[in-house]
Amino acid sequence: MSRIVVVSNRVPVPSGNAGHAGGLAVALLGLMQQRGGLWFGWSGAVTEGVGPPAFSQRGAVGYATLDLTEAEHRGFYTGYSNGVLWPMLHSLPHLMAFRRQDLDTYRRVNRRFADNLAPLLHQDDRIWVHDYHLMSLPGALRGQGVRNPTGFFLHVPFPAPDAAAVAPGIRGLVQDVLAADLLGFQTASDRDNFASTASEFAGAVRTGDQQMEIGGREVRLGVFPAEIAAREFAATAASQAALEPARLLARSLQGQQLVLGVDRLDPTKGLPERLEAFRRVIARRPARSATMLQIAAPSREDVLAYRRLRQEVDSAAGSINSEFGEPDWLPLRLLARPQTRDTVAGFMRLARVCLVTPIRDGMNLVAKEFIAAQDPNDPGVLVLSRFAGAAAQLSSALLVNPHDAEGMAEALSCALDMPRAERQERWQAAWESIAGASPEGWGEDFLRALAPGDLAALPA
Ligand code: ADP
Ligand code: G6P
Fold first, then answer.
1. DSSP secondary structure string, 420-441?
2. What processes does the entry annotate via GO biological process terms (predicted)?
3. 155, 176, 190, 266: which one is catalytic?
4. ipTM at complex level
């Protein structure tokens, strides 16, 4: 079996930022622990000089990580990746803040990754590059003479060509990505949008559902929805429900229904809209019938849009509590801190409703985690944005449009009042769609398709 080399900006280096919230690290960690290989990317540190990679080993996984300089972090990570590509890819162009030098830095950091990775590669390695931070990497690796089978997976959505065009520099990035052999997406619509953009911007020709041609070379396109370890998460949730953090939370509820939100504090997650829906519901129901707990882990705090969002969410939460609170009761608890994944699992098990209402989201693993965490005898209800990739799989959830506050309020009320038989029926259908899947299965599907010449291995 050939070695797998995973490349991602965010690497959960064992001694460092392992508790960091984010779907990419969660999806890849299980795969790498099981399969072994080399994981290459950013160390998470910002330092003075540009040094060689640092190496460490944990079990079968070797880590090779680079620090970023202050200027690289500002231009590559904060500036172009999260200030331009992230909002464009999620169709939020008004949040873009472009500076030409950030695009130059983005390209330079992608080249530095390629320059440092190339000497570490073995002849029969398969290379798997992840996410929007590294769209130039496949092109940069080819520029270094690397000929290994190379795949690229986009964890986030890809919009239609007109919406993609708003990001300066995107044409070159699409060309660079097309240097890979296999491109993976969360949904069929992300794949199709990318293919249209690649035709329009880079002259690639779509020769089938799952392939394109560019410069006489074939590039394959596949759909690989990211998965969680559902059975493992279910067991964690069940055992955590009996432990301290969940027990204290349960006791504090005094019989009220728990409405839960778990997100990174990110403009794509629809938090102000969600709080508005909750405000409407709480205004109509008796005091002390339901309490909302929103866990919002601070994220990308160097990006202005994220700092503004923090203020907006704090202020909306404050106004809900000042308007509807009682001397001995507050309807909303907002924690702007990450919790461990185990603690979150226990909280999910207690919740009657989970609000997963992003404006747009590649997949959204929280939605799948909530389903996995439920007690099959008395499950809670998932209220899910139709603009999350997960909605394609979890169609038995209450699907909502996050721009429609009243529609979301109705769905939340309906969830709070839903009889047990309907909750069980909806939950069962959702559970069946995730129970057999795993991050390892997801990874193996992609890697099998990346095996040279194996077109048949692409899932339909
Ligand atoms: P994203 O990748 O955009 O953050 P996902 O929902 O796909 O969104 O993945 C987020 C992952 O991080 C999940 O495994 C989730 O449990 C975890 N997570 C998200 N927010 C928090 C939080 N506030 N505290 C702890 N874990 C979190
Ligand atoms: C999303 C992105 C990942 C990213 C994660 C956390 O899941 O798709 O690429 O790692 O968010 O964001 P961060 O900026 O902290 O890495």
1. HHHHHHHHHHHHHHHTT--HHH
2. trehalose biosynthetic process
3. 155
4. 0.99
